[in-house]
Structure prediction request, 268 residues.
Amino acid sequence: MARKQDIRDVERVAHQFGMTVLQRRDFGDYLEECKRSGEVGTANDRGDFTWSELEEKARKFPSDDD
Amino acid sequence: MLQSIDLTAVQRESEDVELLRSYLQQLVGQPFLHFRFSYGDELSLHFGRAVVYNSPHLKHLVKGSYIVGARASAWSLRTSTPPSIVLGDDRSSIAPSNGGRAITKEQVESGTLVKDGAYILAAEPIPMESGGGYCIGIALRLLLSDGCEFFIRPAANRGANADDGPADWEIFTPHDRFLKTGPGYRWSYLDSRAAASSAASA
Prediction:
């Protein structure tokens, strides 16, 4: 059921933006919340994000406080 | 013999399933909080204490101090009341005439599948052989106090490179550590504050 390529894309963009493993985990929840709140992507009918859109989301995703 | 394991110590690239079983014992007794689907339809199970996310974008949500992530692996949940099996497995497609019916992510997340107050009774790693569309790897079995049983089994969808792809499953702990398994019988217990790699989360 889970889509391996989407999970891989989150890992790749998290690595690209220097996220920690924990941030990468929370970033996946953030992306899903974006979709649920109507901030959908344009990759497909599910509202998934293109690579550019993932990068934009990663830029907006704040760092941990520590 | 008496022994103790430091839950803040890092363990790299082991294939010792009994040692993995020891690390999993920190889950026993942890109360179930909720299910949540993450991006890519990865199912996560949240246990322990409810904690806030660091990100202000997620301040309306809480997560568990322990989080079990199924990544892209197949999973199943056997519920006790009513007795049913929920399947998250692309290999399974059960016709309505045989009792299967579609269920939505929202229904899984609704909080009705696991009883309030249920906690983990047992957490076991199970080495699996290949076959039936599944690959060699370590499955995870969680038994809850309300009779529910959750099972994650690595799926046979890795690429030609054995290290290709996300972990088979992960568990984030409140000790700034996370457990990851795969490929095969390999597992590691690493610093969750370390940089995310571009391959399987190391």
